[in-house]
Amino acid sequence: VQLQASGGGSVQTGDSLRLSCAASGLTFSSYVMGWFRQALGKEREFVSYILWSGGITHYADSVKGRFTISRDNAKNTVYLQMDSLKPDDTAVYYCAAKLPPATKWYTNYPYWGQGTQVTVSS
Predict the structure, then answer these.
(1) 3-state secondary structure 20-84
(2) β-strand 91-98 against 116-121: which pairing, if any?
């Protein structure tokens, strides 16, 4: 299984970014896809997940209303649209995959991408 995250960068407060995560080596449509982030010196934290059908999503309170997760099962890709970015969103963002059930606990995800850096300056 390989997960390849991309789309990070350095932006200003209030800007937007869209992260992508391309998956291979798994039956993508069967998997829960999650996004997590880890700021320097902090523990990895949940951002969002999406179930196989795309109809069920869940967000951390800190990003609710600003971030949108989506997936394209035909392209084996999950996205994270991040709007109204804040300096507190600065972190390395990781995509992850697991079979159902969905969970926000990162220790339950067996497959991980390499991470993409997002830096938001004020």
Answers:
(1) EEEEECCCHHHCEEEEEEECCCCCCEEEEEECCCCCCEEECCCCCCCEEEEEECCCCEEEEEECC
(2) antiparallel
Instruction: Encode pLDDT of 82-99 as tens digits.
Output: 999 999 999 999 999 999
Give the tens place of pLDDT for each residue, 9-45.
999 999 999 999 999 999 998 999 999 999 999 999 9
Residue 54 has pLDDT above 80, yes or no: no
Dist CA 122 CA 105 (whole Å): 30
pLDDT of residue 41: 96
Distances 97 to 18, 26, 46, 120 between C-alpha atoms, Å: 18, 9, 13, 26
Q: Which tokens belong to 76?
A: 């084996």
CB 49 within 8 A of CB 33: yes
* Nearest-angstrom CA–CA distance, 50 and 2: 18
